[in-house]
Amino acid sequence: MKSKNNITGIILAGGKSSRMGTEKGLILYKNKPFVEHIIEAMNPLVDNIIIISNNKAYKSFGFRCYEDLIKNTGPLAGIYTGLRYSKTENNLIVSCDVPLINTVILQKLTDQKNDTSEVIQLQCQGENMPLIALYKKCCEMIFLKELVKNQRKVQKALKKCNVKTIIIDETLKKVATNINTQKDLELLDFNL
Fold it and tell me: What are the beta bridge partners of residue 66?
């Protein structure tokens, strides 16, 4: 049986959270962990969700969790790991530190899926957002080759892919904002 959307949701929650000082995906915002907000935004668009993290606490959300296959190599390894375990051609990847993300902005990515684009990412004011993007399964091998060469930068790895960029306006950028520090967290409600 073929899945309706042929999309796996992959939440990247494997970072060290060094600037925040605590596990970002588990921080409460409006009485729910960041990762739960992301699950709710993603759920209508995907067939299943997996979480990439070395922290066993994420198992409590009821989805499959996988540790990074290549340790301590940043988000590129997280994306690679998610693609490795995914069983679908299209994969909606979202980092765990964007609690304001919503289904509307994620649907802008999924609506653009096509046969030629290997990555579809958002961009606002010239800033690319490769950690809120739709990735094809074929990127798995491209990223593995980069990681084997000890190349860890997502933007550099994307230069090996056919990338489509969706430009969003400034009003939507707020929902795609990363919360990386305590100060970001304090400003969260004021920036809405």
Answer: 52
What CATH number is given to the structural domain containing 60?
3.90.550.10
Closest-CA residue to 123 (of 136, 111, 105) = 105
Using 70 as the pLDDT threshold, list the residues of the chain that sit under it. Answer: 1-4, 15-22, 184, 188-192
Q: Which amino acid is residue 79, in one-letter code?
A: I
Q: What is the DSSP letter of 44?
A: G
Q: Does 2 fall in a domain?
A: no
Count up the domains in the chain and report the number. 1
Q: Which helix (H) or strand (E) holds 93?
A: strand 90-95
Q: Which residues of 122-134 are buried (b: 16+ CB within 10 A; e: fewer)?
A: bebeeebbbbbbb
Taking only Cα atoms into account, the Rg of the chain, rounded to an integer number of angstroms, comes to: 15
Is 0.70 topped by the overall pTM? yes
